[in-house]
């Protein structure tokens, strides 16, 4: 897989590695966390989650149980649940989206929830000694813009020394 430095997307060395490829198959050594954004209403069925579910049943099962038991769990905007899917691979289900539809209240993405979730993710990744791998979170169905999400990743993960790779589909 060809690696593109942050510079190719403008703006010097960002500290984030951008690659073409599939975020569900990170090609680096060591412990890896695949991070993605979920909604806060229990919906799992469109976008990146489908790629996750094709590889592993656990992230979806964990998310659905977490939502079902939300009266007694921390399920809600900004929360993170780490799901182990392989010896060296974890999936971070991060709640960063309110509902699923763009409408009168704007887009579903909640930047402050993504920010909170990334801060929690950083703690988990640091504890695991893991690198973090993700699609352009919050920018697909959630309707966000990368120019708002990227600085959150820089602040919460990169500045703590956690390696981050962002995957763009090579269609």
Tags for this entry?
171 residues; alpha/beta; Leucine Aminopeptidase, subunit E, domain 1; 7-stranded mixed sheet; disordered N terminus; Macro_dom; Macro_dom-like; ADP-ribose_metab_enzymes
Layout of SSEs?
Blueprint: E1 3-4, E2 16-20, E3 32-39, H1 48-55, H2 58-68, E4 80-86, E5 89-97, H3 111-128, E6 131-134, H4 146-156, E7 164-168
Parallel strand pairs: 2-7, 3-5, 3-6, 6-7
Antiparallel strand pairs: 1-2, 4-5
Helix pairs in contact: 3-4
State the gist of this model.
This protein is an alpha/beta fold.
Describe what you observe in this structure:
- The chain has 171 residues and is of the alpha/beta class.
- It is 28% helix and 23% strand.
- The protein contains four helices and seven strands; from the N terminus they run E-E-E-H-H-E-E-H-E-H-E.
- A hairpin with a 2-residue loop joins strand 4 and strand 5.
- Helix 3 packs parallel to helix 4.
- The longest helix has 18 residues.
- The two termini are 14 Å apart.
Gyration radius over CA: 15 Å
What is the CA-CA span between the terminal residues? 14 Å
Under the CATH scheme, the architecture is 3-Layer(aba) Sandwich
Which stretches of 5+ consecutive residues score pLDDT under 50? 1-12
Beta strand count: 7
Query: What do we call the CATH homologous superfamily?
Result: Leucine Aminopeptidase, subunit E, domain 1
């Amino acid at each position: 897989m060809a690696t593109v430095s942050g510079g190719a997307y403008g703006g010097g060395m960002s500290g984030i590695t951008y690659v073409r490829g599939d975020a569900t198959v990170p090609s680096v050594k060591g412990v890896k966390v695949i991070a993605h954004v979920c909604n806060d209403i229990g919906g799992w069925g469109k976008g990146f989650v489908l790629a996750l579910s094709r590889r592993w049943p656990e992230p979806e099962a964990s998310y659905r149980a977490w939502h079902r038991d939300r009266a007694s769990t921390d399920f809600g905007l900004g929360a993170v649940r780490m799901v182990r899917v392989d010896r060296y691979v974890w999936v971070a289900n991060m709640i960063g989206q309110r509902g699923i539809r763009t409408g009168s209240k704007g887009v579903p993405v909640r930047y402050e929830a993504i920010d909170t979730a990334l801060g929690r993710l950083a703690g988990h990744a640091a504890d695991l000694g893991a690198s973090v791998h993700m699609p352009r979170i919050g920018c697909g169905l959630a309707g966000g813009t990368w120019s708002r999400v990227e600085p959150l990743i820089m602040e919460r993960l990169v500045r703590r020394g956690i390696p981050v790779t962002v995957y763009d589909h090579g269609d």
